[in-house]
Specification:
The protein has 270 residues and is an alpha+beta fold. It has 6 helices and 10 strands; from the N terminus they run αββββββββαααααββ. The protein has a 4-stranded antiparallel β-sheet with strand order 1-6-7-5, covered by helices on one side. It has a 4-stranded antiparallel β-sheet with strand order 2-3-4-8, covered by helices on one side. It binds a DNA duplex (12 and 12 nucleotides) through helix 5.
Length: 270
DNA sequence: GACAACCTGACC
DNA sequence: GGTCAGGTTGTC
């Protein structure tokens, strides 16, 4: 569910409230959520102070005192909620952390999400982080074009590949390709450098616009305060099958690429 | 590359 | 009953 703009929004929301607070109690409720990676128990967070929260790709990273970090990936339906915005039913609650003043709760209907506690100085060795490509904001258009050019798959599929560039998901891949007028089915390696540089500019533009609008809520996504984002009102092609292209008025098409639904305008995107 | 798996819920 | 869903991983 959450892609880069949503995870970034959550990281900022949670950090604004929880930074500086000490963990009073941490409890894992559903064992399946814990990532099996030489973890320490969640309860070992007790007494640690939250120094900061960062994001890497779609991962949230909580930095605690005492050389301790917690990595959390929300996958499709994970939600991290604080304060009074937690869900009343407690169904699908899989772990929680009580801080000095606030409580953080993790909900996940589909239980795809994962959490683990590791040593901060082992962070970069964590398999999930290690495999991630650079952040889109850390790339120049030239470097982005070079990385993409090496791939021989459809450009849409390449954009979803977290090892090339981390953080894009299905919504923002479609939106970025529309912004750059590139058809999702084009082979990545055959697109001109000039067009790929434009695509990078489009990705940055779309991601920043989405972050400024607190992300996209299509179904489950909520920010740290339990509120929906706004970017679903600004989508141009994602989920717009059959609706008029905002540029040319022709209906938006839906195809399946790499097993993912893909939306584009067959007139504007070539 | 296609496809199944991991899960649950919404919708047709 | 079937289909679909913002993600990722593993297997033919």
């Amino acid at each position: 569910m959450p892609e880069l703009p949503e995870v970034e929004t959550i990281a900022r929301d949670l950090a604004s409230i929880l930074t500086g607070q000490e963990v009073k109690r941490a409890k894992l409720i559903t064992a399946a959520i814990r990532e099996d990676c030489g973890y320490k128990n969640l309860s070992s967070l007790k007494g640690k102070c939250l120094n900061s929260i960062s994001r890497r790709g779609k991962n949230l990273i909580f930095h605690f005192s005492g050389n301790t970090a917690m990595i959390c990936h929300l996958k499709m339906t994970g939600q991290l909620l604080i304060r009074k915005n937690t869900r009343p039913d407690k169904k699908h609650l899989h772990f929680y952390i009580e801080f000095t003043k606030d409580k953080l709760e993790y909900y996940d209907v589909r239980k795809f999400g994962r959490v683990c506690v590791i040593k901060e100085n082992n962070l970069e060795k964590h398999p999930r982080l290690q495999k991630l490509g650079p952040e889109p904001f850390a790339l120049t258009p030239d470097l982005f074009a070079k990385l993409i050019k090496k791939r021989n798959k459809a450009i849409k599929t390449a954009l979803l590949d977290q090892e090339i560039c981390a953080g894009l998901g299905n919504i923002y891949a479609d939106e970025s390709l529309f912004d750059a007028s590139i058809r999702p089915t084009l082979k990545a390696g055959k697109i001109s450098t000039a067009r790929l540089k434009q695509l990078h500019r489009s990705i940055i533009k779309v991601l920043e616009y989405a972050i400024n609008n607190r992300g996209t809520s299509v179904d489950d996504y909520l920010d740290g305060f339990g509120q929906s984002g706004n970017f679903q009102n600004l989508l141009k092609v994602y989920g717009k099958t059959g609706q008029a292209c905002p540029n040319c008025g022709k209906p938006i098409k839906r195809i399946v690429l790499g097993g993912r639904s893909t939306h584009y305008c067959s007139i504007c995107q070539r």
